[in-house]
Amino acid sequence: MLFNYKAFDASGRPANGSIDALTIEVAVNALQRRGFTVATINPVGKDSFFKRDIGFWNHIGAKDIVILSRQISTLFEAQVSALRIFRLLAVEVDQPFLRQVLISVSDEIQAGSSISKALGKHPEAFSSFYVSMVRSGEEAGKLDVTFGFLADYLERTYEVTAKAKNALIYPIFVIITFVGVMVLMFTTVIPSISTILTESGQTIPIYTRIVLGISHFLLSYGWFLLILLISVGLFLWRFGKTPNGRYTFSELKIRLPYIGNLFRKLYLSRIADNLHTQLSAAIPIIRSIEITAEVVDNAVFESALAVAAEEVKGGSSIADAFSKSPVIPSIMIQMIKVGEESGELGTILETMARFYRREVSNAVDTLVSLIEPALIVLLGLGVGFLLASVLIPIYSIAGAS
After folding, report:
1. According to the model, what pLDDT value does residue 398 have?
2. Which domains are seen in the chain, by residue range?
């Protein structure tokens, strides 16, 4: 395999070129034997045009990290060295941006950095939770176990989150398609029919006049309406990036009818599972709560966990600290209190995580079963109203003639 490299020679002068080697690790070793200090090295010709590293695509998905963590766990169990693990995965991974991250991590490890420190330099790929877990594994000398914990945890989190997101894809797609078809009808079909209706001299029913009015509005002011919608969307997007906007949207997300209940259970499952995983890795409880606040992905729960961390620092029990927030349900507080009193907090949190995962799964199944018939009824009413508004006057005209 051919690799392009950028390096510095013994005098510190830059040197660029290519080298043929079986693996990236072999290529780096060969360059080092020549007296070069490797800055970057990348395989040539592996990516197609559509897989090249384009800035807009520099995003690492949760699924990529799940698969990567499972691979790292397996290689550690096979007693492969950390440097060789990251070198191997850098060659094998398909995601271009993740490949660059892994190359950087392996370079840091080769330079003498710890794994957690090297991973911590890439927050776009590895969260604070991930880095803290790896640091704990390094201190305990159990990196294979730690990466196993991480792989299991990330798989559970990804499965629950993906199921919740997939439940919303179908209704959103149907609604967007329906709106598109209706706009097409109002702007192309209805205008040609409106000419027939207005020239007939017949009395037009009120519901038909409403349809004709909507059609006229879209033809006359459709572009202005589209620009307005885009402007509002951009404003909301920018507002959502601010602290106040993020908190507002996070609160709205958990207060929506039914869907809000689904999101609340999703976040509670994430909190319980996150805390349990970190306690299993012997991370202190205060730090565990702080890290959970960073990765819970909801500003309301993040604020609640931040307050809880401060309360625990001040000497409060975890249950009392969590009771300060109305978004933490009483059943979770009571279970945590039992766990603290019995010394089985980790087991209790694991139980709570399983409970809320089941609740999320059941809520998603129920939501899907309700959405499909509701959408069918809604679409039927919309299409029926439109057809009735057009066909009834036409039949009246035909009968009068």
Report:
1. 67
2. 1-46 (3.10.20), 157-401 (1.20.81.30)
